[in-house]
Amino acid sequence: MESEAIRVRPVPGAVPNLADYERARREFSWESAREALDGLPGGRGLNIAYEAVDRHVAAGRGERAALRCVAVDRRVSTVTYDELARWTNRFANVLRSLGAGRGDRVASLLSRCPELYVSVLGTLKNTSVFCPLFPAFGPVPVEERLRLGGVRVLVTTEDLYRRKVADRREHLPQLEHRY
Question: Locate the AMP-dependent synthetase/ligase domain: which residues (predicted)?
Fold first, then answer.
């Protein structure tokens, strides 16, 4: 089944990342996609958090916008690659200090906010497994996902923890840390 491209109104002055979708689709190959990745320094493999953040800092683009966030009150904030690299490194170090390592599950129960992206990328930098939880889930689906996923660390807000997790905490013995 053929699907149509989503058309978005251009923003004045903004340069699109993908100017010609149809051409990019025709010319796409997995080989060229692999060649576009930097890989970890020293040929140590591939980490998507490095590709998403740190390679931009290493290439001297740290002052550029990595994220633009629009708050509920419509205020716009910008997070640079330098900031995002610092914050995600700090979060990866927090996970290590908690004893979370390769393969350990880290879940987030957050709305779309800078902390969500920091937790995703910091978890991946730590070689842990990231498990997103949608804030609209009720307490039972949140509990089931935390329990079945064997989640050790949960990143959430006080309000979401109180409304979705606190009353079910006794059923989650593997959940060691809330951050």
Answer: 56-162
At 104, is the secondary structure helix, strand, or coil? Answer: coil
> Which amino acid makes up residue 75?
R
Q: Does domain 44-178 have CATH number 3.40.50.980?
A: yes
| Nearest alpha-carbon partner for 66 in 48, 46, 82 | 82
Domain boundaries, the chain: 44-178
Q: Read off the pLDDT of residues 45-73 as tens digits, 9 standing for 90 and up.
A: 778 898 899 999 999 999 999 988 877 78
Query: Exposure of 119 by Cβ count < 10 A (0-12 exposed, 13-18 middle, 19+ buried)?
Result: buried
pTM: 0.80
Residue 36 token pair: 């576009």
Which residues are bridge partners to 130 per DSSP?
106
The distance from CA 179 to its chain's CA centroid, rounded to whole angstroms, is 16
Q: Which amino acid is at 170?
A: E
What angle, rounded to 10 degrees, do the helices at 114-125 and 81-97 form?
Answer: 60
